Structure prediction request, 225 residues.
Amino acid sequence: DAKTTQPPSMDCAEGRAANLPCNHSTISGNEYVYWYRQIHSQGPQYIIHGLKNNETNEMASLIITEDRKSSTLILPHATLRDTAVYYCIVRAQTDSWGKFQFGAGTQVVVTP
Amino acid sequence: DSGVTQTPKHLITATGQRVTLRCSPRSGDLSVYWYQQSLDQGLQFLIQYYNGEERAKGNILERFSAQQFPDLHSELNLSSLELGDSALYFCASSEDSYFYGYTFGSGTRLTVV
Prediction:
């Protein structure tokens, strides 16, 4: 069963903020929300993670709703190099790796 | 350069053959993870090693095996290859088991013909 739901694709204009939604309505109290991205055929790259508070780092911001059933990854000023597949993943620190895999993600295309 | 080195970058081989993929983790990282990414399956976790010992298994076929050596590099052995094994194989490493600490290599593209 999929733990997260993401739109398959979205476009964003260069220089504008990109807001990537993720639904995780069955998230458990001990599960974190993680975001990774994969630029074409390269290895996935960690972006950010959070439990219930909003988080910000040099790459992005993560906004988690109060009920934790959804979240939004914000790329504040999208560049062409941000074109990638973005994966929203929920898992607990102690989750067995045997039951974990990346989903289909959201293909983000940043256009000039 | 992520610090995780995978070799070879590309590999073409015939069905029924055996290949070995190599991964050198980032300096200081004790955990190594192998993932398979095929067009119709997405990224799938195969296996994890921590300091030389198998820690977790995912969707790894019996024809596949892996090991981590004393110098912490890891090898993924794929045998009796089938056309469906064609995929990108990624290695990731981390200092511990926390997911946010993962660093992925650039992958090995395996083509079975």
User: Anything to note?
Assistant: DSSP finds no helices and eleven strands in chain B. Chain B touches chain A at residues 2, 4, 33, 42-45, 48, 55-59, 88, 90, 92, 97-107, 109 (CB under 8 Å).
